[in-house]
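Hi team,

As requested, here is the filled-out complex form for the uridine-diphosphate-N-acetylglucosamine run. I kept the field names the same as last time so the parser does not choke. Let me know if anything looks off before we queue the next batch.

— J.
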Amino acid sequence: MDKILIRGGNPLTGSVRISGSKNAALPILFSSLLASGSSRYRRVPRLRDIDSTLGLLETLGVGVARNGPEVTLDTSGLERWEAPYDLVRKMRASVLVLGPLLARLGRARVSLPGGCAIGARPIDLHLKGMEALGAEIKLDHGYVTASAGRLRGAEFTFDRVTVTGTENVLMAAVLAEGRSVLRNAAREPEVTALAEVLNRMGARIRGAGTAEIVVEGVAGLHPVEAEIIPDRIETGTFLAAAAVTGGKVEIRDCEPRHVGAVIDKLRRAGAEIAVGERTISVCGPPRLKSVDVQTQPYPGFPTDMQAQFMALMSVADGVSVIAETIFENRFIHVSELSRMGADIVISGDTATVRGVRRLSGAPVMASDLRASACLVLAGLVAENTTLIHRVYHLDRGYEALEEKFSALGAEIRRVS
Ligand code: UD1
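And here is what came back:
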């Protein structure tokens, strides 16, 4: 299995272009199921989660053609409505077929995702939302089966903010009869991006990006051409990498408005950051200062940046308190950081990080996508070499990771 070898110590310099957003691409690719015909998507990142999505769409009878960052999906042959265990197991977001299949075919059968490395992550709110729209939901043999005639518009309040839950129920509501109002909806940019694509397909959605989304159901949608928005977590990861290595990096083709909370924390930690229309320039200080962080739904500090930020705080000057409010068990990277010499104590949902002067390179194990990114950042500033095992986690979510970091002057390579 591939590993990533990093020799730490180089400040990153130069410029890097951000890829299309994984978490925006996933629901948008699934939304193709809502119309019959050929839809084309640009700036689709080359990632394992995208391959899993395309593989799942193919098993449903969708014609998939890929040419670099461009993907064409022909849904005119859509004939199946089941997402089997083997595919859902590889990627939880496969559950996003549920809403579109239910809306378009009146039925869907999806394997239950089960637990995963970062907590239980149930899908009860997705299912309650579908039920509110008139679907009948059955759970048996590890599968959820949803069926309905035409869905009916309804008012539904999410008990807590869920990103894919909002996306799933939104995709079901666009073809429902009448008006739906989704309250306590997720405000993440990926939800807004999905709503924009759906509206271009003929849906009537307003309020996306706020906590209340109103959908006037329509009878049918048409195919679309769309470009995926820049990945805000990749953007944040490069910002963090530049800052912690004391480097100077220009981040291009990104959306600065989507990373406001991360920029704010990095500035407080002592990084100099200049924001342009589509670029961000960052200059890291000789040593960062500790700052406290609490993860929150958007526009707060993203949970998907918590692990990377912890790598920064582990070498910062002072003590940082990092609270994770979105997911339980999202501190699995702590034990690996500690093996590299970090001083971190966990109590419940809070990690107290006392910055040390240096981390020391070590063999470490990646446990999930963002935890892996945390270990890359730690490796970039550690003494000697760090060897990261289980790199497939990184391949789920970071396009051309080694190439991009190498181009910025990092000593990083993939070894088999
Ligand atoms: C999405 C992102 C993920 C990010 C997360 C939070 C995608 C593909 N993934 O995941 O990268 O870390 O948002 O920003 O976009 N919950 C329930 N019941 C549900 C659904 C969620 O209790 O039915 C809970 C979860 O366990 C979690 C919280 O709600 O504690 C938020 O999870 P959610 O926003 O749903 O995460 P995902 O959409 O899975």
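Two things worth flagging: The mean pLDDT is 96. The pocket of uridine-diphosphate-N-acetylglucosamine is lined by residues 23, 26, 93, 119, 121-126, 160, 162-165, 190, 303-304, 326-327 (CB under 6 Å).

Thanks,
J.
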